[in-house]
Amino acid sequence: MFVLEAKNVSKKVGSRTLINNMSFGVEKGQICGFLGPNGAGKTTLIRLLTGLIQPTKGELAINGICVTKDRTKALMNLGAIVESPIFFPYLTGKKALLNLARLHPQLPRTQRKAKVKEVLEKVSLTHAADQKVGTYSLGMKQRLGIAQALLGDPSVIILDEPANGLDPMGMRELRSLILQLREETGISFFISSHLLDELQQLCDHLVVIKQGKLVWQGELGDISGTPLFAYTLSPVDKAQKLIQQSYPVQRISKNQLNVEISEDEIGELNKVLIENEIQVLSVEKKQKRLEDAFIEMVSS
Fold first, then answer.
1. Tens digits of per-residue pLDDT, 38-50?
2. Which residues form the ABC transporter domain (predicted)?
């Protein structure tokens, strides 16, 4: 069973179709990246998944519970940060979470303090629990937002552009936190972001949309198609002319080429290179950049 699922979902506003017959699923423990160019319908779909708006047709389910038929029960299994987390700056981190804990009917009053302490520990904010949120850095506020999303013990957490504005250290800390939570709790994440290199380091599954339609979904490793191999060669000019007769090739440095070739064909290519008196100094498999694959998808 998927922890997050869309089945033939469409959303129309007047004569405009914002989401067009979209279906996909996120499994337990997956970190799923959600990609699309501006205006593709990402925000609309997130609003549908979080129950803020209703679909024109189709079903959305969280942990197998239909959002449209039993919204309250379905959303008990969901945590979300849509855009930036917002907290009253004059409250401490602990007080802010205690107030939000009251919104979770499945969390008894007698357990709220213990739960707040638990989630603050999970996001490494115990030391700042009694500090006012107004003194928190942006990275700390993002972690406090994730702590808020964890209060209801969700099966899946939706994050909308979580790394926006973070410096490299903040992005690394956020990435480590998401991976740790997945490892320790089995929570799934559905992450919308324009930072494709960051998603490539974090996600194992992807959903790509364009103009309200699903254009691709699957494992991250499958999105790049034929793998790239970095060849270090001498003489490189002669090698490039020879290789490009059979394979896509790109010059990436003084003596290095990227060759789009399957592993089964490497031995034959190496043989041809050596027969033509070209030295093969090294061959290294590279993962095609998600950015390049994404641009190919949405440009076609």
1. 999 999 999 999 9
2. 4-236
